[in-house]
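hey
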């Protein structure tokens, strides 16, 4: 395969994806996603924006230490301090890359940066030259490129390549571009930038008009060889181009993308999507292309009949090609530790003996309440049990009374170290009463911003997965938990949010102490 036939996949789920309102990930959650992205075969992982927060710095450091195959990238504005922070964060990466950006559109230059074209050009060149002193692999993005005057864009691209950028990314920052027009921009750069062959041309398309995937694909047809995208299309505002959609479009339409390949292992797509959805707390819409729950279900009789006679009548993708297996009954009450541990291996988990033991206890407990256990149940158990959020507050007990014309009242007992904290409060419903009681016990005031309960599989005894998003002052925190009792799942999810809040505040305190000492 020639180098020019390979389209590189740059995943920015951990950076732009984390900018999705409400999606915040801990360092360990980012690591879990990064390890799965490595299995999926992405070429580059943008692991964070190290200068923006201590959490991002630590996440990029951790991902750099643990991953071997993909390039690990950190984002930086075109200023020395950002590039230095990225350098510090990427120290242990086997293949580090810094991604420097500076806006080049008139709107951004005049209103946001208050700088003239020549100043922007100079700052871009200087930043790339500075970055090249610290990194062999430098990517540059003229932010808001799709609204930048073409001749100026071409000049910036030429000069940053000359300064040492090995990848130049053309972002449609506000998702305004139209495929034909965006494609023409890429073609113009390919034909008018004299040194264009010295760099990989990349695209980064937002989805404000729902055109992120189409714009990315058209750009590839016109010469781009790197696509920046996210799992489940997460990202700022309406999100970024969805990785699973660009990949499957290229795979299914080989007639259009003649000879072009990526390194993506498509049977890992579904698992990756599930993991990201679970850890960010952001559900995938059921009719989402490629990995939505409805993508392979045929409701109408005519379609069902057609698929049974010949699958290709109504199904263009084989479910197994994206790793979609449907719900398979796997284990029950009488299954032993060995069968449990073998099934987890098949699901792709490599756990230590202690971790298997820990998850097995929860499995047995669940098997007592639920007759049939499916792969999804096992995945939920493992993710919950191996959550790395320290349980500063542990739920010991709760009770709630409610009914028709009865004011719901809850009692909750929590443990913190050796201390037991309990409280009782009334609420508008049983969940509200429980959440208010936890607030009262802990002396805080949480504002419930989002609350969802989903059945992990079907059936009356299904495992319910609750997720909450709570505002505690300026902090917005997600929490999640599962149980066959949805009230218990909700209470545990709220306690999980409180524990995440406590972890975040401790980290911030340590950071400001360190800053004071400096
Ligand atoms: O959307 C955008 O322009 C970005 C840049 C930082 C590449 O995310
Ligand atoms: Zn972006």
């Amino acid at each position: 395969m020639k180098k020019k036939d390979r389209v590189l996949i740059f995943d920015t789920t951990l950076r732009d994806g984390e900018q999705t309102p409400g999606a915040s990930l801990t360092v360990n959650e980012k690591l879990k996603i990064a390890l799965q992205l490595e299995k999926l075969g992405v070429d580059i992982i943008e692991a964070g924006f190290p200068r923006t927060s201590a959490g991002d710095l630590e996440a990029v450091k951790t991902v750099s230490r643990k991953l071997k195959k993909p390039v690990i990238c950190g984002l930086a504005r075109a200023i020395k301090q950002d590039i230095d922070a990225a350098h510090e964060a990427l120290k242990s990466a086997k293949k580090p890359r810094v991604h420097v950006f500076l806006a080049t559109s008139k709107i951004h230059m005049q209103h946001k940066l208050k700088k003239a074209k020549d100043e922007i050009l100079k700052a871009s060149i200087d930043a790339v030259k500075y970055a090249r002193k610290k990194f062999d692999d430098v990517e540059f993005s003229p932010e808001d490129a799709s609204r930048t005057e073409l001749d100026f864009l071409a000049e910036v691209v030429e000069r940053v390549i000359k300064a040492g950028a090995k990848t130049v990314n053309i972002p449609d920052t506000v998702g305004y571009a139209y495929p034909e027009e965006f494609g023409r921009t890429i073609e113009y750069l390919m034909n008018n930038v004299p040194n264009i062959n010295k760099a990989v041309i990349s695209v980064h398309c937002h989805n404000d008009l729902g055109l992120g995937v189409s714009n990315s694909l058209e750009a590839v047809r016109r010469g781009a060889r790197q696509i920046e995208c996210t799992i489940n299309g997460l990202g700022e505002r309406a999100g970024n181009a969805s990785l699973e959609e660009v990949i499957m479009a290229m795979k299914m339409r080989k007639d259009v993308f003649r000879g072009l390949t990526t390194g993506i292992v498509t049977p890992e797509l579904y698992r990756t999507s599930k993991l990201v959805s679970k850890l960010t707390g952001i559900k995938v819409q059921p009719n989402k292309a490629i990995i939505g729950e409805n993508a392979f279900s045929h409701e109408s009789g005519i379609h069902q009949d057609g698929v049974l006679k010949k699958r290709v009548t109504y199904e263009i993708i084989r479910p197994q090609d994206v790793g979609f297996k449907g719900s398979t009954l796997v284990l029950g009450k009488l299954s032993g530790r060995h069968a449990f541990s073998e099934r987890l291996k098949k699901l792709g988990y490599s756990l230590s003996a202690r971790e298997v033991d820990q998850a097995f206890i929860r499995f047995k407990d669940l098997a007592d309440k639920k007759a049939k256990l499916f792969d999804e149940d096992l995945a939920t158990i493992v993710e919950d049990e191996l959550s790395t959020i320290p349980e500063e507050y542990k739920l010991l007990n709760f009770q709630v009374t409610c009914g028709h014309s009865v004011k719901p009242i809850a009692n909750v007992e929590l443990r913190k170290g050796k201390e037991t904290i309990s409280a009782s409060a009334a609420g508008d419903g049983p969940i509200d009463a429980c959440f208010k009681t936890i607030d009262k016990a802990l002396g805080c005031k949480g504002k419930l911003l989002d609350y969802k309960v989903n059945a992990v599989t079907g059936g009356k005894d299904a495992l319910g997965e609750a997720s909450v998003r709570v505002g505690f002052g300026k902090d917005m925190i997600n929490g999640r938990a599962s149980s066959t009792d949805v009230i218990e799942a909700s209470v545990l999810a709220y306690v999980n949010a409180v524990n995440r809040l406590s972890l975040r505040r401790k980290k911030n305190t340590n950071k400001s102490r360190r800053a004071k000492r400096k």
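Residues 340 and 360 are 7 Å apart (CA to CA). Residues 16, 171, 204, 206, 236 surround zinc ion (ligand 2) (CB under 6 Å).
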